[in-house]
Amino acid sequence: MSSFRLTLLRHGATIAPAGILTGHTDLPLSALGEQQMAGRNNYFSRFPPSSIASSDLCRCAGFARQLAGKAGLDCHIDSKLREMNFGELDGLAKAQWSEAQQAAWALWSQNPEANTGADIESWVSFSARVNAAFRAWLQVSHGNHRVMITHGGVAKALLLNWLGLPAVRHNQFWLAHAGMITLYWDDEYLPILQGIDNEVLLGA
């Protein structure tokens, strides 16, 4: 496999009220989210994608299909690239959380690998799922710029795995809506993190 640029682009803001965990809850982008993603079009004009992958959830897949259509590419859509399933908390407003659910979330936030209360998907299973799906896509992808439209948690799980860091470090990576991570990838070397760009300009 030759070397290439790898871009992980998080989806834009959704119609979900602030603070709601939208793991497997399938909500579309808001008008702001659409503008945030459109603001990345200039980047893809400078660095045209050669392969595109996405979660099957609409907040990722919609832009991925648009980008693929403009580039004349197929779009690799995979449900295994979904965000973590937050169990009882998924899509539930925080005002509705019970004390037990609040406690479970506090413990998970400190160390997701050691805490799986409120029926939250285990970090071990989540990380294994998304890393296996990523590798499977690499085997069928091609070209010098491979792009994944993804979720914040998925991007964190991939980075932690590639950098050899424990799950307890997950909060040290922040990816804004439409935030972007770029890497240099070559199977003969460890992935090289080139940058994290959270400066999102709104597009038309």
UniProtKB/TrEMBL annotation:
Which Pfam families does this one have? His_Phos_1
Q: Which GO terms describe its cellular component?
A: cytoplasm
Q: Which GO terms describe its molecular function?
A: phosphatase activity
**InterPro entries per the record?**
His_Pase_superF_clade-1, His_PPase_superfam, PGM_Phosphatase
Spell out the PANTHER family in the cross-references: BROAD-SPECIFICITY PHOSPHATASE YOR283W-RELATED (PTHR48100), HISTIDINE PHOSPHATASE FAMILY PROTEIN-RELATED (PTHR48100:SF1)
Q: What is this protein called?
A: Histidine phosphatase family protein
| Organism, as annotated | Iodobacter ciconiae
Tell me the organism's taxonomic lineage.
Bacteria, Pseudomonadati, Pseudomonadota, Betaproteobacteria, Neisseriales
